[in-house]
Design a protein that fits this description.
Elements lengths: L4 H17 L3 E11 L4 E7 L12 E6 L4 E12 L8 E12 L5 E10 L5 E11 L11
Parallel strand pairs: 1-7
Antiparallel strand pairs: 2-5, 3-6, 4-5, 6-7
């Protein structure tokens, strides 16, 4: 009997590990351009349910922080139009805003995780191409 207990304990650890995983996670990778010191909205997550009614706000957690800027999650009110078959409605939303340091230029990265009212989890991997102040476009050499 004593020999069977390590297997039982291992089985419990395996079950506990599986339970900790939770729902499957979808992933999104996006790239944005901005200028040093200029904030940019990288995500907008309205509180509209699949049936077009207003729902609770999406939960947003910063999974990894940028090295050369700051990320903020802000609550806003927006007009939602053109979503599937939903009529236009006003809803609350959360937006994710990145602001690079004033003296930084180059590539910065961070990620955040959203969880909607149904518990669906999505990881958003964000890459920001930051150009120095005074340039209008990334291909601008002046």
């Amino acid at each position: 009997m004593t020999g069977a207990r390590p297997w039982a304990a291992a089985g419990l650890v395996l079950v506990a590990g599986l339970l900790a995983i939770g729902p499957a996670t979808a992933q999104s990778e996006r790239t944005f351009d901005t200028v040093a010191g200029q904030a940019i909205v990288v995500g907008l997550h309205p509180s509209v349910k699949d049936d077009c009614s207003r729902g609770p706000l999406v939960e947003i957690v910063i999974a990894s922080s940028p090295r050369n800027g700051a990320v903020a999650v802000q609550g806003v009110r927006i007009a939602v139009e053109g979503v599937a078959t939903c009529p236009p409605i006003e809803a609350t939303a959360r937006r994710v805003v990145y602001r690079p340091e004033l003296t930084f230029s180059g590539t910065d990265r961070f990620s955040y995780r959203t969880t909607d009212y149904l518990g669906r989890v999505k990881l958003h991997a964000i890459t920001i191409l930051v150009k120095p102040r005074g340039k209008r476009r990334f291909d601008d050499q002046t």
